[in-house]
Amino acid sequence: MTYCLGILLKDGLVLAADSRTNAGVDQIALVSKLNIFDSQKDRLICLMSAGNLATTQSVAALLDQALGTGEPNDMYAADTMFDIARIVGDTLRAEIAREAKYVEPFGSPDGSFIVAGQIEGGQHRLFQIYSAGNFIEATRDTPFLQIGETKYGKPILDRIINQDVDLDSACKCAILSMDATIRSNLSVAPPIHLLRYKSGNLSTYNHRRIADDDAYFLSIRKAYAQGLRRLFNRLPNPDWGK
Amino acid sequence: MTYCLGILLKDGLVLAADSRTNAGVDQIALVSKLNIFDSQKDRLICLMSAGNLATTQSVAALLDQALGTGEPNDMYAADTMFDIARIVGDTLRAEIAREAKYVEPFGSPDGSFIVAGQIEGGQHRLFQIYSAGNFIEATRDTPFLQIGETKYGKPILDRIINQDVDLDSACKCAILSMDATIRSNLSVAPPIHLLRYKSGNLSTYNHRRIADDDAYFLSIRKAYAQGLRRLFNRLPNPDWGK
To answer: pTM for the whole thing?
Structure first.
């Protein structure tokens, strides 16, 4: 399984992805689910993926091969982030159409993506691409999108995130959302890839790979766990009336 | 959807269930998912259910009709909680076998149960019955079982619950687990039914129906939300190194 999270803020974007992939009971591997396309000065494009690893890796490789070719699926030739979301969706659709009949006897070929980034002259934007190739976009009222094992990490996001949250607080919240998921589900695991993008910076951004022995990760995990326990203990018990 | 939670403690049992049921887009109703069988002095038997409401209500009704009859599915004639779990599983299995071919064209007939209680001379016990009729039992190392919309409410349980937690703290934690689920998922809603059972008390227990305007529920929701936000704000931001 996988957990990937994208947050759209007024100030920019925060992305987080875990690194656990498992294909059957005996294959557990670490693969980064975050692909960053940053070699052009006029744009930053990030993909995160969940689902069938063969499908999503093929899509990322096909998109990588097309860069700079001027072909219809060249993300460096696209004018808008919407057009890039459409390229990712179309590539995913074509890949699944090509593979489905061979893969389905063994399992689902489905995959999904989060696409985030900015092209000079446009807004920073965030999309979620479904396995069918269609997609939705994050908005002011729906400022975060998740794929993979999404539910464990949603409550903390629902409590904290809105579009006006600053980038560093959103990074902190993304880590806590990952931590909740990692604690509750064995199939999601560090290293966590965390990306912080300030709108307008285009090819410049912060990226951090957070391993399970990362000092900041350990300290925030511990402080949050202890703080939550103290908070819990201070809350009143229910009163049974009689 | 539904969310039901059972917690097995050294001191007793805590059960919580929401009341939202929806069958299709235009039917949303409130139904308690907690059935309490308490008319015998030597035992307390509680059922909570999730899944197809027609299936689970029929199972509960069949079990209710059989009480005191001495038939094989008479829960008042059973010697152990294990035997009661088996009765519930067998009844569920028979009900699904009876209904499946008529119901499946419209949706899944599946359902699941949490069975909890104590019979004089035995321990208090907690079981989860799958739709196939087989079941698992809570243990010292797995002290809580959930059915329905389980994931949003699991992180807080993972942090707080172990077998040595006292009954009132477990009630508090059950309410916070429900609250997290209600905040993140529209298909789970109050009133919450909360049951607190101290081992050895048999037919005596505390039961509370917590509506969304319940003063305790509102106060604990608010105090937890505010405390969590304060805790979040005090945690350090990630350091990007350069």
So the answer is: 0.88
